[in-house]
Automatic annotation (TrEMBL), chains A, B, C:
GO term, biological process aspect, one: fatty acid beta-oxidation
PANTHER family on file: ENOYL-COA DELTA ISOMERASE 1, MITOCHONDRIAL, ENOYL-COA HYDRATASE-RELATED
Functional summary from the UniProt entry: Key enzyme of fatty acid beta-oxidation. Able to isomerize both 3-cis (3Z) and 3-trans (3E) double bonds into the 2-trans (2E) form in a range of enoyl-CoA species, with a preference for (3Z)-enoyl-CoAs over (3E)-enoyl-CoAs. The catalytic efficiency of this enzyme is not affected by the fatty acyl chain length.
CDD domains documented for this protein: crotonase-like
Domain of life according to the entry: Eukaryota
Species for this entry: Triplophysa tibetana
Associated pathway: Lipid metabolism; fatty acid beta-oxidation
Record-linked InterPro entries: ClpP/crotonase-like_dom_sf, Enoyl-CoA_hyd/isom_CS, Enoyl-CoA_hydra/iso
Subcellular location, principal: mitochondrion
Name this protein carries in UniProt: Enoyl-CoA delta isomerase 1, mitochondrial
Family: Belongs to the enoyl-CoA hydratase/isomerase family.
E.C. designation(s): 5.3.3.8
GO terms under cellular component: mitochondrial matrix
Compartments (UniProt record): Mitochondrion matrix
Amino acid sequence: MSSVLRHSAKFTTSGFFSLLSGNCSHGRTFASPYFVSKNRYSSSPKIKVDLDSNNGVALMQFQSPPVNSLSLDFLTEFAISLEKLELDRSCKGVIITSAQPKVFSAGLDILEMFQKSPEHCAEFWKAVQEMWLKLYGSNKVTIAAINGSSPAGGCLLAMCCDYRIMADNPRYSIGLNETQLGIVAPFWFKDTMANTVGHRETEKGLQLGLLYSATEALKIGLVDQLVPEDQVLSTATETMTKWLAIPDHARQISKSMMRKPTIDRLLANKEPDIKQFVNFITKDSIQKSIGMYLEMLKRRKS
Amino acid sequence: MSSVLRHSAKFTTSGFFSLLSGNCSHGRTFASPYFVSKNRYSSSPKIKVDLDSNNGVALMQFQSPPVNSLSLDFLTEFAISLEKLELDRSCKGVIITSAQPKVFSAGLDILEMFQKSPEHCAEFWKAVQEMWLKLYGSNKVTIAAINGSSPAGGCLLAMCCDYRIMADNPRYSIGLNETQLGIVAPFWFKDTMANTVGHRETEKGLQLGLLYSATEALKIGLVDQLVPEDQVLSTATETMTKWLAIPDHARQISKSMMRKPTIDRLLANKEPDIKQFVNFITKDSIQKSIGMYLEMLKRRKS
Amino acid sequence: MSSVLRHSAKFTTSGFFSLLSGNCSHGRTFASPYFVSKNRYSSSPKIKVDLDSNNGVALMQFQSPPVNSLSLDFLTEFAISLEKLELDRSCKGVIITSAQPKVFSAGLDILEMFQKSPEHCAEFWKAVQEMWLKLYGSNKVTIAAINGSSPAGGCLLAMCCDYRIMADNPRYSIGLNETQLGIVAPFWFKDTMANTVGHRETEKGLQLGLLYSATEALKIGLVDQLVPEDQVLSTATETMTKWLAIPDHARQISKSMMRKPTIDRLLANKEPDIKQFVNFITKDSIQKSIGMYLEMLKRRKS
């Protein structure tokens, strides 16, 4: 089975666009009464990681303005941070959230695919694979505190977690909307969604590139819980406490048993998947389409 | 895995019977304001195909009295019509509906399996396979406008589409009710249902040969939407407009990614599946059972 | 893929515990107006089997105080009883229920895994496999009349049936809660749950070792119907009548078509699955953990 990002000449305005061009005027502040004993884990600019030594819970905050796009740098930093936590036995669980207003993550950074060498594209795609392999295969308890919109790769990040709490805000949406942009989610995005919401909803959602409102996302099981926006992080922390009460070794094996077949499918196809992506994305017609799309974004911004 | 039509000595009266013997006194008329610029595609008697050159939407109306049974002729005509549309780049989507009152399609024509040569039975079964392969694997957007009951093969036709709109009429039902007739849906019917409503509902539905009311069908996800009977076709047309707004190439690849494994399973087993069907259906005991069933139908009609 | 019972040093108090230590003071009596013509099938102490020659329905009542633990003796008796019914053409369906108050079955008997020889452990695990293979693969209509709590192996028993009716009692719960005890459900427990409630709910339920209340179990599809406690058995009998109205041969083939792939997975891995279990359970650390757990149970009882 093969599926990489592909294109169509036609573009529609989508949630993706509105995110990129969104007026991000009011920030959000994270009070952190939950992390009394802080051990600053990383001072890198794109992701802030705080591991609370009291409870073993790490908070990963995406702080890459304006919309936490998954650039090569972001993905590399994410993989390194998660790997560190994975190897740290004092870390029991990871909460992923955004420090940017109104957006969890806008997904893959399209600039990494525009006018780049095949080598760069391959490196980028490998980083996307690694992010997924590390997060979907993590032994830690992972909880997504979805405090903003979460299209495409942002939705994938959320789906990789063990539990998803989303802000009950009608302006936020989540979904694998690649099709709306004329591209196609690769097979492991599809597998992750099917494991979350089932075959039929995935078939419909991927074909239409659906962005679900928070309410719709809850209804189909794409997220597990909606809470008022200012309670997303505290609810994630409370939920984490419940998950950490479970015998850890048994929980890890159960998680692995559920996810291993899906992970093995990409592991067995990493190189062909990269090749396919590079062949596709470096095509003249695709590059032209991406260029037109970026032009459109620029015009809207100005 | 093997599964073909099989039998049991016991027959129960079922929705299937009531369809065949139904009093089809009042017809239904299809006003067609939606197809201003008509290009009559086929003048064949069993299926009326109109391709609207304005929007690229083809309307396939089943008009094979009394109940749009899927005879060899019907299936052949259906496959040819769909193949023509598939190859026609001006056609973007296909709406399937019935021009017969109260029934979408009653499913496979049992007469094609009664007192026929093994060669005929093989030809018939191949036609059933081709219908499924073409419709489930279609690159076009396919929408079922289910304006009547839709048991067995009729339900399969509907499940092959990308979206299902059903008349909100408590007298209409839909489901793979083969078991009620003492026969068994083949594995690819089963796969199609499991892809639509999941494993558990399929297990229960196939074992009991359940015919779901429109309301129940919506609840389990066998259909996507219920509308008043006189709005089925207009809703299908409106829905089609939304689907056609999606970049076509990306949508096609997404659809194929979801359905290819299921399609490949039959492609790898076409001949064994035909052999198994023929071996089974030509057995004396089965022929006798079918004969008794047809006798019962006759008596009920008179 | 590998998964056997595994452990964690940490134990939490769980539903399992409360069951084992439960004050089972008031019994439940089974009036049996439904079994007029009784043919006492087995007089064994742990399971009472009554086959009603009038309708071909066998009632299997678990009567192994205090909580119908699945000991080697119980499992052996269960397999023999079911095998007898399976070979008895006059038997059409089997209703499984409990004669003990407040519990359907508490699951695998932990004493069979404590301070036992590798040979004994292997024998025990083989018996668990056989129970599952026979019940999940049964040709008869099987209905679980869940008149009490049903954790772990008890939940598995229920999930193996074709239909599940549970007492609408907020004090009863059901689920594969192995993780709560620091152990892990094997892959075929997991497959059975995924076939019943889907991938996502299984992933969450297994990781957390969730015990669902009757209401929750209905909502996620873990059981099919809730009725007042005194109507569980009568509803099971009425439901059985509907299932027995379906042509039997066709129903059997449909059932087999749905379950065969799952059954084949264990059949292909019986020996490795046993070896893995024995290797694990006979480890000193595991034996120590089980010992501590049993000590805790003793202290709570006294």
